[in-house]
Amino acid sequence: MTLEEFKTIAEDMPDEPGVYFFLGPHKETLYIGKATSLRTRVRSYFANDIAVKRSQLIAAMVEKAAGLDWRQTDSVLEALILEANLIKHHTPEYNTQAKDDKSWNFVVITKEDFPRVLLVRGKNLDVEWPESTRAYTFGPFPHGLQLKEALKLVRKIFPYRENCTPAEEMIAAGKPVRGCFNQHIGLCPGVCTGDISKADYRKIIRHIVLLFQGKKKQLVKELEKAMVNAAKNEEFEEATKLRQQIYALTHIHDVSLIKDEYRRPPTTGVVDRIEAYDMAHLAGSANVGVMTVVEGGMASRAEYRKFKIRLTAGNDTGALREVLTRRLGHDEWPLAQLIVVDGSTAQINTAEAVLRELGMEIPVVGVVKDDKHRPRGINGRRDLIAGRERDILLANAEAHRFAIGYHRKRKRAELGL
User: 139 with 129: CB under 8 angstroms?
Assistant: First the structure.
């Protein structure tokens, strides 16, 4: 299939949420992704600078592809769930290459009288929740942050227990029964206060299971039947609650999931997104790293990220390698057009080596400091630095401030203060 044929198919796709498939020469599924707008998302794969905007791996996938397909959904929430179910079923080559098993995210429903609904990282799945303790496991989900937002939406429709202790366990232990915070705000149905029976709670869990199995139509039918029965039995409060759940499911307002999922402005011209990295430790203890973001000349604090360093102790370049590798494993986060490191040649070389290993082409600059940790220069490509000194220094200063704050918090925790 020619590039023009691909573009024609992309233009014919709906401007609606859904899941898309890149297919290989033998109709095998190469890659699965979800989109807020199928047309816009798939069209972006045929830009001239796809290797820069995404990665060399994705560029290779597009070059190998021989076909396209898609499924439209009613909401981004449903697209998120469908994407995970299809990735689990097909295990596409380029999805699994783009992300190692430890980077995936899963929804776990526990095997308990009052099951919990939890978001668990792949690296912790079998350690924290062995298969014998799980009633259901949904995933893998590639987009951790969006999955977290999705669970918030689901919980508003079907309140569930997360980590509170059931009332009967508190009574058996001779402890006072208290409602958890989520019970007070309507996100827990009263497991901790004894306001819901095991049978009624199991109904809630069944509804959540059907939703994550992608069986929304069956779920709505069951709710409608229950609503009619409740009305016949003059259980009007229950009927009203069920009607509200049906409405919420059929009019999902997933604004928190609707975003430009891969903001990739051109790398020529104005640099829009700058990411800065800094590390902090004290003699190798409370070793942390951070990422800060400056977009359009403004600090985007909602996109700052913290990292507990796992593999290094007091080694700044080793910590930088670990942080960048972990950060770039999050393909649900927008990529930067410029990376700023705190330091000179060693730090720049480390960052560039990580990017090369991952097949990414993002320029790196380093902020050099004097003995009082004041900036005295910026090393890197002069064409990217010129006119952007303020933004680069702002990102670097924010990274230093954020790293020190996080380090002090971790140090106090280690000392039990």
Answer: no
